[in-house]
Amino acid sequence: MYKVFDVLEIRKDFPILNQTIHGKPLVYFDNAATTQKPQSVIQAISEYYQEFNANIHRGIHTLAEKATAEYEGTREMVRKFINASSTDEIIFTRGTTESINLVAATFGRQQVKAGDEVIITTMEHHSNIVPWQMLCEEKGATLKVIPINDAGEIILEEYEKLLSERTKLVAAVYVSNSLGTINPVKEIIDRAHAFGARVLIDGAQASAHLDINVQELNCDFYAFSSHKLYGPTGIGVLYGKRELLDSMPPYQGGGEMIKEVSFEKTTYNELPYKFEAGTPNIADTVAFKKALEYVNEISKPVAAEYEHELLTYATESLQEINGLRIVGTAKEKISIVSFVVEGVHHQDIGIILDTQGIAVRTGHHCTQPLMQRFGIPGTTRASFAMYNTKEEIDKLVKGLHRVVKMFR
Amino acid sequence: MTINQIQDEIIEEFALFDDWTDKYEYIIDIGKKLPPLSSEYKTEENKIKGCQSQVWLHAHMDGDKLLFEGDSDAVIVKGLIGLLIRVLSGQKPEDIAKATLYFIDKIGMSQHLAQTRSNGLASMVKQMKLYGIAFQAKQEVK
Ligand SMILES: Cc1ncc(COP(=O)(O)O)c(C=O)c1O
């Protein structure tokens, strides 16, 4: 549909963007927290409830069949989106966080023993730290952390030194939500496999911007959320290799995940249903498909190229602000700029930008250990999506000039 | 002046501003002028848990009046603390305990009391009132 990338046309698909905040046109630069949703996604949710709401899988009536077909249609769409070999490997969860917790509670509990090691990176989101800490504590295992350099890049030589026969799992973020760094996950995965360790990739930030091919990456698990990908909140994905998912114990018990239940013994359902207990989030899952279709229609590489242009433009323009320092200057980045301004607290920056209609995120971005690594309490983060424009970046720069004048 | 008289005075001052930036400039000014809390009071106990900025509150009695001093590493929050101090510091504990702080809403700053701001201002208000209750109880024991 979009032969050439036309940001003004794209903006029309996102009704929320067309509003004023404190009398100023909204500039939405908080896309790493969650992206806005195109009309097709919003419409799909209400269509589901208006036209074919029914509980899935067990019904034999027409509505149940339609709802099931749509729900499973999203699973097939997700499979294609990340190039998994089978829909059996696509498990629906509430989001990245639940996907990671699922792996920790099943694979982790089963495989990680006292004396074993789990490796993560310095730039993990809390949701890829805490589940492993909890697991290690429970099992008497050790959590090891790959250090990063001052640009915010993983030091691969240090990673090599951490790997050993004791390593059971490496859990690494594909793209840092605080810095924008794109990690060399292929190398991380290959090196872990050489030691027989399994690898989970946190794809929360990567999936909207990079082409994802789980077979080529050869990761064992891949987690991401719909809401950072122009889809609804409350739905996410865990990809896992079939042989692993098969050998893992179930996560939660209940309906849907069983084959047969008696009081003596229960047998579990086939993949992927074994990991999907209870009535799932049908409406949002159905609408998630529209988000993936939207991204495919625009074409991810085309959007990514445009977003990279925005990143370059913002990185250059922000240099004019006196005392501003960008945190996260990796060679490979997606469209996230985190920065600190000398003498001005990030919270003050956020409040004043909000009065200009500009939405940014301030704070530690759920990566406190990373902030400690840089010796700062937090940053101001502007993260761009395909519907943002250079004119909006100009407004951010203008707003920051104002901030500096007000606080210094 | 009573707590409500001071609140009304602040509301009048803010009525002069029609732009958000002007309001914040005023608050920033109050923040910058608020005397820093001396380091002996910047203790863990005096710290009010907030997500994004650090906030400290110190309370002590002077005769029958409860006095507050406060500080923050973020200027706007510090300005809001300055306003709270102006309203509540130097009042009787029982008056502080039962005060309704309507000025925050009237000057358009109630969003800073919202959960999402996580700047500890709501906890700050709560803590000031708790001090009021505690010192009132102490006086009654005496
Ligand atoms: C890198 C990363 N991992 C994990 C998460 C958690 O995702 P969710 O809150 O959707 O479960 C986020 C979201 O902020 C993230 O940016």
From TrEMBL, chain A:
Domain Aminotransferase class V span(s) in chain numbering: 27-396
Cited PANTHER family: CYSTEINE DESULFURASE (PTHR43586), CYSTEINE DESULFURASE 1, CHLOROPLASTIC (PTHR43586:SF8)
The keyword tRNA-binding is annotated on this UniProt entry: no
E.C. number: 2.8.1.7
Superkingdom, taxonomy of origin: Bacteria
Function noted in UniProt: Catalyzes the removal of elemental sulfur and selenium atoms from L-cysteine, L-cystine, L-selenocysteine, and L-selenocystine to produce L-alanine.
Protein name per UniProt: Cysteine desulfurase
CDD domains the record matches: SufS_like
Cofactor(s) recorded in Swiss-Prot or TrEMBL: pyridoxal 5'-phosphate
Organism from which the protein derives: Rhodocytophaga aerolata
Family under the similarity heading: Belongs to the class-V pyridoxal-phosphate-dependent aminotransferase family. Csd subfamily.
Record field: transmembrane: none
Taxon lineage: Bacteria, Pseudomonadati, Bacteroidota, Cytophagia, Cytophagales
Keywords recorded for this protein, A-Z: Pyridoxal phosphate, Transferase
Catalysis performed (reactions): (sulfur carrier)-H + L-cysteine = (sulfur carrier)-SH + L-alanine
Keyword Ubl conjugation: no
GO molecular function: cysteine desulfurase activity
Automatic annotation (TrEMBL), chain B:
Residues of the Fe-S metabolism associated domain: 11-129
Domain of life of the source: Bacteria
InterPro entries the UniProt entry points to: Fe-S_metab-assoc_dom
A Pfam family reported for this protein in Swiss-Prot or TrEMBL: SufE
Family of this protein: Belongs to the SufE family.
Protein name, UniProt field: SufE family protein
Species whose genome carries this gene: Rhodocytophaga aerolata
